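Technical annex B. To support the medicinal chemistry partners, we prepared a structural model of the target in complex with zinc ion, based solely on the information shown next.
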Amino acid sequence: MGIVSVIDEMVSSSRVHAWAYTTAGEHGRPAKGVAIVACMDARINVESMFGLPTGDAHIIRNAGGIVTDDVLRSLLISQRLLGTREILLLHHTDCGLMRFNDSQLVPQLEREAGSKLPFTLGAFTDLDEDLRRSLALIRSFRFLVARNSVRAFVYDVSEASLREVV
Ligand SMILES: [Zn+2]
């Protein structure tokens, strides 16, 4: 089944009118004042993990939940324009970003595409190390108003537990 037919199916069965949009929080300000940066892994439901109804938090997701320039851009807007004051970083065990490395994959992709990849893929080998690097990156990003209110956690998918990285 192609991607278009899956999307067609999703759109026709969507319940947009029932619950896709919440009126809580003026101009979309997250009610709990928190922003979460998490991996896009399809097995993780960030909202239910932290008991967050729609409207409570900004949830910024990408492959690995790594802190890229675009994540810093979103956090800046989240804090400066939409009033969030705390940041939670979430990595997880069995992450796809640990199953390859940039130095092997990038040259292969560039050969196939015949051009230079304009960004890194951000693979990492150590969850704690990547989170500590991310914490440091956010704490040194002076455009954030609450750049020290950031904490990082590893979700262990086999034990279904959370562990804080300090
Ligand atoms: Zn992941």
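Notes passed to the chemistry partners:
The radius of gyration is 18 Å.
The chain has one domain: 24-165.
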